[in-house]
Amino acid sequence: MREKILTYIEHNSRIDLADLAMMLGTDEATIMNELEAMENEHIICGYPTLINWDKASVEKVSALIEVRVTPQRGMGFDKVAERIYNYPEVDAVYLISGSYDFMVSIEGHTLREVADFVSAKLSPLDSVLSTQTNFVLKKYKDHGIIMAEKHVDEREKVSL
């Protein structure tokens, strides 16, 4: 049952518990108890809201920063990741495969703010060997939600 609950709330965390209980063939109290248990076990870590900031007319700059590091002896990548994710500017940190070790996601109000974070806080860390900053120019899809408006072909149809 847990997997089914997680699948439903992953796509709609605002789903009505009575509706969820009905879909799963159980009662609301069972759903509430399962959700509470999964929150306590940190299976459910939060209920974020996905916002299209372009539509909100709020200036935000998002960046994905690739970071190459030297893992610390006895701690591996975890200690370095902890130092990075403790910065309040950092939204997400992922250990990745490939040429870099981490993918760090941050948001700022300006390109300069993001660049200053990278040059003043991230790059100088002892374990950091190199960084590469990629600015997000447009979000088409985020967390499974299509953010871009559908393109409408406004050309006139011609028949011969």
Summarize the structure in words.
- This protein has 160 residues and is α+β, with helices and mostly antiparallel strands.
- The protein folds into 2 domains: 2-40; 61-142, Alpha-Beta Plaits.
- Helices cover 32% and strands 22% of the residues.
- The strands form 2 sheets. The protein has a 4-stranded antiparallel β-sheet. It has a two-stranded antiparallel ribbon with strand order 5-6.
- α2 (17-24) crosses α3.
- The relative contact order is 0.14.
- Keywords: DNA-binding.
- Residues 65-138 form the Transcription regulator AsnC/Lrp ligand binding domain.
- This is DNA-binding transcriptional regulator, Lrp family.
- One of its GO terms (cellular component) is cytosol.
Pick out its properties:
160 residues; alpha+beta; Alpha-Beta Plaits; four-stranded antiparallel sheet; 5 helices; 22% strand; DNA-binding; DNA-binding transcriptional regulator, Lrp family; WH_DNA-bd_sf; Tscrpt_reg_AsnC/Lrp_C; WH-like_DNA-bd_sf
